[in-house]
Amino acid sequence: MAYDTDLTDEQWGLIKRHIPRAKKGGRPRATNMRRVVDAIMYVVTHGCKWRGLPKCFPPWETVYRYFVNWRERGRWRRIQYDLYERVRKAAGKHPQPSLLIIDSQSVKAGKRVPVDTKGFDGGKKVLGRKRVLMTDSLGLMVDVSMTPANAHDTRGGRKVLTKYRRRVKNPRVKKVLTDKGFRGQKLTGWVKHAFNAVLEIGQNHSSAKAGFVPAKNRWVVERGFAWLGDYRRLDRDQERNPANSCTMLRLAYIRLMLRRLVPV
Question: Most CB contacts within 10 A, which of 36, 103, 114, 188?
């Protein structure tokens, strides 16, 4: 049985080198790794519980175990980073961006989410977690961080920028574009020290002649959040572990980039 979330041969060919081929020691592996990835993409896209996976996939316990194991070993991150550079090169861009755009989104948390990992966002009236998404000028996710919804945006902003700074030895970043929620001398000074870059606050504006005018470049990160709306698992944050929440967002962008590199 085939689903619309199943990878094509060409898409599987782009990521299979990141998937372990054989188990070390013990019995030979009987699980089809490609079907494990298909099952994980099914969960992210259609939003079912792990226990609700169709029987044509490997057992849900096996699928979930690989999902967590590959997250802990950084395999999902490596797949995302690899595809990210491929998409930028295909678009005629340098593999590393010079412009980073950051925005946050507060989402409701499922009832199984631990109390100490969520909070109440008084501005958005949301009890849950805050996704801090960092994209480039193409709207592709560079990295993501997760905080309780009541955490200040600057906390999540510094967290996601730190991830990028640790990963890239010689970043090309010249400007970091955010909204007014990220204002503050601490973050501005840190961006200058860590990247030798400028933190710019981009704001939407309106006029009688032009009407609503979105801030230049910053709208692409908001479009990125809109893309996530196609993945039902992301309607709410259902993950007990915030690290799993970040991985779900990575998987959504992995699928998006695969479809961009190999249109179906």
Answer: 103
